[in-house]
Amino acid sequence: MASIPDKFLDLFGDKKAFANIATLMPDGSPQVTPVWFDFKNGRVRVNTARGRVKARNMKVGSKVALSIMDPDNPYRYVQVRGSVVSETEQGADAHIDSLAKKYLGQDKYPFRTPGEVRVIYEIDPLSVQSNG
Questions:
Q1: What is the full DSSP assignment across 30-97?
Q2: Smallest Cα–Cα separation from 46: which of 105, 86, 2, 4?
Q3: Which of 37, 67, 118, 120 lies in the 20 to 30 Å Cα band around 92?
Q4: Would residue 62 count as lying in a domain?
Q5: Which one, of 91, 89, 21, lies nearest residue 50 by Cα?
Q6: Is residue 23 part of a domain?
Q7: pLDDT score at 1
Q8: pTM to 2 decimal places
């Protein structure tokens, strides 16, 4: 597992940096989506709803890449390449609410749809590159 350089940890904390996550479609073509994320125990955590394209592409063992740009300086960024190591619905509703607090300042995720099932994906950083 690769480490995030200390001088870039602010992008993984309270700063409202978005990640663009790249996953692979079944035909091998890339798919990229901007996502909210957090960082816990050395892993990047992404939350989405079952049925979305990225959810269909991210299974345990799937390779992904994230590009995280500093919202205050677009020339400062981190790229993380890694592997999905866990996928769980347990705690996913509370997790998306915590991300809504970070990114929107709201206690509850306001975009929930009826019947939506949330899932957390944890990604082990295997390779980290940074600039800035």
A1: EEEEEE-EEEETTEEEEEEETTSHHHHH--TT-EEEEEEEETTEEEEEEEEEEEEEEEE-TTHHHHHH
A2: 86
A3: 67
A4: yes
A5: 89
A6: yes
A7: 77
A8: 0.94
Domains in the chain: how many in total? 1
The first and second tokens of residue 10, run together, are 């602010």
Kindly compute the dihedral angle of the four CA atoms of residues 119, 87, 125, 72, in this order, to the nearest 10 degrees: 0
Domain of residue 53, residue span: 6-131
Checking if the pLDDT of 14 tops 90, the result is: no
- Map tokens 């995720």 to a residue: 109
Residue 122 lies in a domain: yes
pLDDT at 24: 97
User: Domain with 26 in it: what CATH number?
Assistant: 2.30.110.10
Per-residue pLDDT reduced to its tens digit, 72-85: 999 999 999 999 99
Listed residue (23, 46, 44) closest to 35, CA to CA: 46
